[in-house]
Design a protein that fits this description.
elongated, 271 residues, single chain, eight-stranded antiparallel beta barrel, binds S-adenosylmethionine, alpha+beta, 5 helices
Amino acid sequence: MQFRKSAFRGFAGVAAATALLFGAGLYSLNVSAQPKLDIHFVPTPHEVVKRMLELAKVTSTDVHYDLGSGDGRIVIAAVKDFKAKKGVGIDLDPQRIKEANENKTKAGLGDNVTFQNQNIFETELKEASVVSMYLLTSINIRMRPKLLAELKPGTRIVTHAFNMGEWKEEHNESVNGYQVYLFIVPANVTGKWELSEGERKIALDLKSEFTDLSGTATINGKSSDVKGGRITGTKIEFTIDVDGKPVKFEGNWDAGTITGTGAAKWTAKKA
Ligand SMILES: C[S@@+](CC[C@H](N)C(=O)[O-])C[C@H]1O[C@@H](n2cnc3c(N)ncnc32)[C@H](O)[C@@H]1O
């Protein structure tokens, strides 16, 4: 009896230890399978999705990326309703990718829509001409250097609920109480330029910070501040003093050259 009791105790002990180990194993398996999300899934209401894509002016020439794509609704609407030529959703949570692919099938969409189980901070973005984000201001700000470095000037970014900190939006509005923002990736024109307008040469030392443009202009050895500087995608505007009078310059940046778009004919090249 004594033997039987201790044998039972021994068995019970081994069984309990096995259960504990097995449970712990399952727990650790479960925990390691959970991706570490920067923000949890909350879907953007459909009417807000529509307005975001309208603000971004999505057309058939666009490649749209949704960063943190959830159930895929923004990518699906961009391709199905706005005829974007390609849509890419990025989400770190495999469950969301599964749902997005199911929704893509239900929408009858093909190979031009893909959902990739990736971290947005490790995803190459240069192909996108439109980007949407429903994250947090802090995540948008962490993404900012990557957005500015990889996206082409003129790329439209629409965000739901959260802005980009010091990078000021081109537009914001409320859609049934949900705030949406439009940003346009500005050309980086920081550096020294030589502006030629007929015989006149103007040396520009420019500093661009998001959409703000400042610096100095030097004509015949006389320097003055660049005023009213602004960058909207590839569109550049600023005012400088010429012969004692303020003159506004408006131009378009393309591959490192700024070409005047107003009545006066001028170009600026990196010095
Ligand atoms: C607020 S939801 C937005 C979903 C969708 N864009 C929408 O507006 O309906 C944020 C999504 O980001 C995903 N997410 C969070 N951190 C991420 C990361 N570092 N990389 C990729 N996706 C992430 C979450 O899984 C979630 O689906």
